[in-house]
């Protein structure tokens, strides 16, 4: 391969890296949709770029590797003797593998709430660009057939690890997304007290029973005031240490329990 051909391949890697970085701020790389159950299914969609929320760290790492490949290609063009062609190839392959992993749809299902994350068009475009960048980097590196096999294995390993990491990250985030703690809370309007124990709840001396924890969702059962009723609520953070209840469904006492729980906020004492 002539030096001019080598330089052209390195320029291709640089242009592709720059394009991926520029594209990374465009929303829609990932479609993050939360489904909330209740009296009617509610969807809360969010379009993420490569630096937001569930994009981190796998998708963000892929974009950063594309930037590393671009930087190494530029240094190799400036000083061919510096010996960074292998780094160009490794970073380009890593970027392709992690971007490919980010396109795999993942889902976390819970009680009355679930999350779906799927790829959008900017991510698809970035994957195509990363593939072209990997081909250009391999051409500049002059790998033989053994090197090509190793490169393919690297992409497969990174893609698999990326999918596993994203799945674990989503499960961990959803599983820990509980906004209440054991202790006593005071109502913001009438000063009524709510006491949450280990699997139990008591509200204003009027309501009590078992409290089940499903991340964002709280389920109330076994209340002596309505032993056959089952109440489901989303519980959100409200201020420092406070919580806010949002009813999904609760027929206890013709809605009286729901009215007391959802009116105003509860501050931790």
Q: Which residues form runs of ≥5 with pLDDT under 50? A: none
Task: Provide the spatial order of strands within the biggest beta sheet.
Answer: 11-10-9-8-7-6-5-12
What is the chains' assembly state? single chain
Count of DSSP E strands?
12
**How many alpha or pi helices?**
6
Shape: elongated
Helix- and strand-based class?
alpha+beta
What is the string of helix and strand elements? HEEHHEEHHEEEEEEEHE
> How much helix is in the residues?
40-55%
Give the strand content: 25-35%
Keywords:
8-stranded antiparallel beta sheet, about 270 residues, 4-stranded antiparallel beta sheet, single chain
Task: Summarize the SSE layout with pairings.
Blueprint: H1 3-23, E1 30-36, E2 42-48, H2 58-78, H3 85-102, E3 106-109, E4 113-119, H4 121-141, H5 145-175, E5 183-187, E6 193-196, E7 200-203, E8 207-214, E9 217-221, E10 231-237, E11 243-249, H6 256-262, E12 266-268
Helix pairs in contact: 1-2, 1-4, 2-3, 3-4, 3-5
Could you describe the 3D structure shown?
- The protein has 269 residues and is an alpha+beta fold.
- Helices cover 44% and strands 25% of the residues.
- The protein has six helices and twelve strands.
- The chain has helices spanning 3-23, 58-78, 85-102, 121-141, 145-175, 256-262, and strands at residues 30-36, 42-48, 106-109, 113-119, 183-187, 193-196, 200-203, 207-214, 217-221, 231-237, 243-249, 266-268.
- The strands form two sheets. It has an eight-stranded antiparallel sheet with strand order 11-10-9-8-7-6-5-12, with helices on one face. A four-stranded antiparallel sheet has the order 2-1-4-3.
- A hairpin with a 5-residue loop joins strand 5 (183-187) and strand 6 (193-196).
- Helix 1 (3-23) runs antiparallel to helix 2, helix 1 packs antiparallel against helix 4 (121-141) and helix 3 (85-102) packs across helix 5 (145-175).
- The longest helix has 31 residues, at 145-175.
- It is elongated and about 85 Å long.
- The chain starts with a helix and ends with a strand.
């Amino acid at each position: 391969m002539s030096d001019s051909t080598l330089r052209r391949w390195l320029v291709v890697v640089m242009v592709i890296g720059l394009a991926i970085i520029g594209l990374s701020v465009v929303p829609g790389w990932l479609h993050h949709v939360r489904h909330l159950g209740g009296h009617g299914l509610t969807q809360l969609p969010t379009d993420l770029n490569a630096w937001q929320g569930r994009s981190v760290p796998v998708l963000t790492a892929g974009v950063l590797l594309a930037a590393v490949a671009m930087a190494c290609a530029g240094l190799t063009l400036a000083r061919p003797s510096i010996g960074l062609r292998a780094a160009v190839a490794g970073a380009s392959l890593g970027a392709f593998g992690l971007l490919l992993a980010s396109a795999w749809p993942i889902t976390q299902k819970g009680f009355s709430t679930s999350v779906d994350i799927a790829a959008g068009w900017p991510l698809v475009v970035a994957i195509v660009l990363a593939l072209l960048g990997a081909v250009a980097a391999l051409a500049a590196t002059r790998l033989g057939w053994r090197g090509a096999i190793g490169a393919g294995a690297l992409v497969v390993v990174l893609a698999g690890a990326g999918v596993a990491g994203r799945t674990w990250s989503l499960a961990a985030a959803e599983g820990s997304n509980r906004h209440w703690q054991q202790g006593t809370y005071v109502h913001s309007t009438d000063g009524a007290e709510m006491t949450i124990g280990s699997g139990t709840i008591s509200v204003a001396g009027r309501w009590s029973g078992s409290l089940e924890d499903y991340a964002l969702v709280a389920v109330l059962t076994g209340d002596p005031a309505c032993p056959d009723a089952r109440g489901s609520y989303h519980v959100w953070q409200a201020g420092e240490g406070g919580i806010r209840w949002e009813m999904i469904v609760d027929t206890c006492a013709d809605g009286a329990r729901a009215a007391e729980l959802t009116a105003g906020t509860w501050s931790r004492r």
